Amino acid sequence: MLLSAIGLIDDRWGLASSLRLLCYLAVGLLTPWLMFPESPLSGVALIGVGVGVAWCINLFNFMDGADGLATAQLIVCVGGLGFDRSFWSL
After folding, report:
1. Helix, strand counts (H, E) of the chain
2. Structure confidence by residue, pLDDT tens digits, 48-72
3. Packed helices 2-12 and 17-35: angle between N→C axes, nearest 10 degrees
4. pLDDT given at position 42
5. Would you say the pTM of this structure is higher than 0.85?
6. Contact assessment for residue 20 and residue 6, using Cβ atoms and an 8 Å cutoff
7. Residue 46 contacts by C-beta under 8 Å, 6 or more apart in sequence?
8. Residue 1: helix, strand or coil by DSSP?
9. Whole-angstrom Cα distance, residue 69 to residue 18?
């Protein structure tokens, strides 16, 4: 929800890239901690995963401005996941 609001504000009025990066890092660091609260991963590993999530968010935001590139990538990923699931259930 926070990322949607940040994206909407950025699309409408424009935000500084440093503020967007700070929001991406905050969400990226919170995501693994919220998804795996009792994870055996160390703090360093959780930070690494969080930075990876922030990188993916930033990458998707970059692709979103490239007129359909994000949608094409989404279709390929979802198609691959659907094929994998249907292939292994045979």
Report:
1. 4, 0
2. 888 888 888 877 777 666 666 777 7
3. 170
4. 75
5. no
6. yes
7. 29, 32, 33, 36, 39
8. coil
9. 24
Q: Which two tokens stand for residue 34?
A: 């919220």
* Spatial separation of the C-alpha atoms in residues 63 and 86, rounded to whole Å: 28
Quickly count: other Cβ atoms within 10 Å of residue 11's Cβ: 11
- 55 with 32: CB under 8 angstroms? no
d(CA 83, CA 17): 37
Please tell me which residue, 68 or 37, carries the higher pLDDT value.
37
**Three-state secondary structure string covering 2-32:** HHHHHHHHHHHCCCCHHHHHHHHHHHHHHHH
Tokens 């969080």 belong to: 50
Instruction: Please determine, for residue 88, whether its predicted confidence score (pLDDT) is greater than 70.
Output: no
Report whether pLDDT(12) > 80. Answer: yes
Unique residue bearing structure tokens 């292939």:
87
